[in-house]
UniProtKB/TrEMBL annotation:
Gene3D superfamilies: MetI-like (1.10.3720.10)
Major localization class: membrane
GO cellular component, one term: plasma membrane
Residues that span the membrane, as ranges: 7-32, 227-253, 265-287, 293-312, 350-371, 396-417
Protein name stated in the entry: sn-glycerol-3-phosphate transport system permease protein UgpE
UniProt-listed PROSITE patterns: ABC_TM1
Subcellular compartments: Cell membrane
GO BP terms in the entry: transmembrane transport
Phylogenetic placement of the source organism: Bacteria, Pseudomonadati, Candidatus Omnitrophota, Candidatus Taenaricola
Source species of the chain: Candidatus Taenaricola geysiri
Keyword hit for ATP-binding: no
Pfam families: BPD_transp_1, CBM30
UniProt entry keywords in alphabetical sequence: Cell membrane, Membrane, Transmembrane, Transmembrane helix, Transport
InterPro entries for the chain: CBM30, Galactose-bd-like_sf, MetI-like, MetI-like_sf
Length: 432
């Protein structure tokens, strides 16, 4: 018998462990994706190749490769085949001896906050060449660093890989009035007073491993903050309403006698078997005729009562000792006084179950907010996430950041009230 019980216990532990792992994998994958700088659920992007110069006057992300000069400076570029490197590289020749800057630039169009380093291969024709590396926004506001900081004495005549940390750029100069630091162009600037002959290849930016900017981007992008407020406000109203009104109805079924009590209770129980989709159209027509579309009334009033919560409170209250209520009534306490001062304090475990059920149902609901609202000001988080996906394409990192923000309150509420929830469920089970 002992061995049999031990085998059952071990099997139960194994099953629970497997279920826990299967539950945590999607959750962990969601949080992991939300802090990546790019990629999908199962793939990560390590870098972005801006230009390898194998496709001529267009870089690897579809932007132009061009030059500009000031005053009497001159600059030319040429693509040279290199059999040793199995590809082509770019040769840049600039003459600024007569004054003015000469600039080679190529389109970038990236938010540089997500990058960790900039790297490229480079060599000089005679060695010792010095120039500036820069990033500029669409208005020409730039952040730049000197290449000799990373290559003391200037370039070598052999190919060298130059790696520049993005933190060395003062990226606050780029789009100073915006949170996003979109560098429109990458450029190499040759200062006045010299002649230069530089060859470069494989210009790329390496992504950061992890970033929390995705969360901030989601919260401040468009009306997402409004979605968050709507979900909080609607959930608060629904949870409060369920804890009060469902408890009142459950108390009436448990303690009061009135005509057709059993029939009405059976109707309440029977409504649990009606799918939400069946009443979707009647609810929409009713809300429309009342003029409540795109209002908080439409999103809160239909959810203030839940048949399951009524059933739960009725079962729980019916098993509470009635002597306490009778004593309170003898002392002159009214029905409302008995309900709020005697019954509800004793039913706190059941109230916790009602609260968490109402919270999860309201916080995660998608169908009714979707069909009863059609303006961004009234959308909730689940609907907002669906729209965010459709508007931005499948931007997995930001989509998972939004999903994490949506899931976090549910996890917090459950962790805080888990003891009350378990106590309420077990009390209902042991008391019949």
């Amino acid at each position: 018998m002992v061995n049999k019980n031990s085998s059952v216990l071990i099997a139960s532990i194994i099953v629970l462990t497997i279920m826990l792992i299967l539950t945590m994998i999607p959750l962990g994958l969601m949080f992991y994706t939300s802090i990546k700088t790019g990629g999908t659920l199962f793939e990560s992007v390590e870098n972005i190749l801006v230009a390898d110069f194998d496709i001529g006057s267009t870089n690897s992300i579809g932007g132009p490769i061009a030059t500009r000069q000031a005053q009497q400076a001159a600059i030319t570029t040429e693509f040279i085949d290199d059999k040793i490197r199995s590809g082509r590289f770019l040769s840049i020749k600039a003459d600024t001896s007569k004054g003015g800057d000469a600039v080679f630039w190529t389109r970038l169009g990236q938010d540089v906050r997500k990058f960790d380093t900039l790297e490229f291969s480079c060599r000089g024709a005679s060695g010792g060449e010095k120039f500036f590396i820069g990033l500029e926004d669409v208005k020409g506001r730039a952040a730049e660093v000197a290449v000799d900081k990373y290559m003391p004495g200037g370039l070598k005549t052999s190919w060298q890989k130059i790696i520049i940390p993005l933190k060395d750029f003062d990226i606050l100069k780029i789009n100073p009035d915006l949170r996003e630091k979109i560098a429109e162009n990458f450029y190499i600037k040759f200062s006045p007073g010299a002649s230069y002959a530089v060859e470069m290849d494989d210009l790329r930016f390496d992504f950061k491993k992890f970033t929390f900017n995705n969360y901030i981007d989601v919260l401040i992008s468009g009306p997402f903050g409004r979605y968050f407020f709507n979900s909080i406000f609607i959930t608060f109203c629904v949870v409060t309403g369920n804890m009060i009104f469902s408890s009142m109805v459950g108390y009436a079924f448990a303690r009061k006698e009135f005509p057709f009590k059993k029939s009405i209770f059976m109707i309440v129980i029977g409504s649990l078997m009606i799918p939400t989709q069946v009443i979707m159209v009647p609810v929409f027509i009713l809300i429309k005729n009342l003029g409540w579309l795109n209002t908080y009334w439409a999103l809160t009033l239909p959810a203030l009562l839940c048949p399951f919560n009524i059933f739960l409170m009725r079962q729980y209250i019916s098993k509470l000792p009635i002597s306490l209520e009778e004593a309170a009534r003898i002392d002159g306490c009214s029905d409302f006084g008995i309900f709020f001062r005697v019954v509800l304090p004793l039913a706190r475990p059941a109230l916790a179950v009602i609260g968490i059920n109402a919270f999860m149902g309201s916080w995660n609901t998608f169908l009714y907010p979707f069909i009863l609202t059609n303006t961004p000001q009234m959308r909730t988080l689940p609907v907002g996430l669906a729209l965010y996906k459709s508007l931005q394409g499948v931007d997995w990192v930001h989509l998972m950041a939004g999903s994490s923000i949506t899931a976090l309150p549910v996890i917090i509420v459950f962790l805080i009230f888990q003891k009350n929830i378990i106590a309420g469920l077990t009390a209902g089970a042991t008391k019949g």
